[in-house]
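Structure ticket #2291
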Amino acid sequence: MLIDTNTYIGHWGFRPLPWHTADDLLRAMDAHGIDQAFVSSASAILYRNSHAGNEELAAQVRGHADRLVPFAVINPTYADWEHDLAVCHEEFGCRGLRLYPNYHRYKLGDRSGRALLEKAVARKLILSVPLRVEDGRQRSWLLDVPDVTAVEVADAAKAHPGSRWLPVNGAGYARTVFSERNGFDGDFAIEISRLPIGPGRDVPLLIEQAGPEHLAFGSGMPFTVPEVPLVKLEALDAPEEVKEAIRWKNAARLLG
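Resolution: structure written out below.
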């Protein structure tokens, strides 16, 4: 069993993606032995109204509930976002949110961010924050969007008891609550695609410090290729039960 916690369908405003439909994603999953994926709309990141991307996502994943788990993109600075959140959860069956504070010009700890997080926690939604979407060397000259820091995400987690977090495509988790056992009143899994796996590096340290139950497989496709995190997982010097937890069990626990 393999669950990918970090995938997208849709379009990106600055370059063509290798695939953009649910059927494309499913074919890529089949080619790489991925059984299930958490998926959100790439289009929604740059749409003026992110909810249009959620509507496209819901139409695409309909009929694939056994394999594609939808995550909504909500922008708390946009008018009527609370209605959009309710629709995504109650009608579209979204199990989590993908949040882009730096693209949507808010902070997780400011008034807009706190309001969104409080509503999401009340609905028991997973909070997934991509620390970056693209490597800075790939970004268009029209974009000047810094990475979200692991510290900002960790501080938000600590400020919202009972929350569930899934930081993806990130690094820099050392010396935050994500590197501590029982660091905050909630649950989390850190997606491994950008984390080094060598001795003394991020993944082994997080296994030791936070526990193996707090890491999860993810690819970032189609922005990136799944082969790299797949090789990382196989090359990781850890017992098979730890790898199995990272492959799917920790993601399944977050889903409840």
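Closing remark: The chain has one domain: 3-255.
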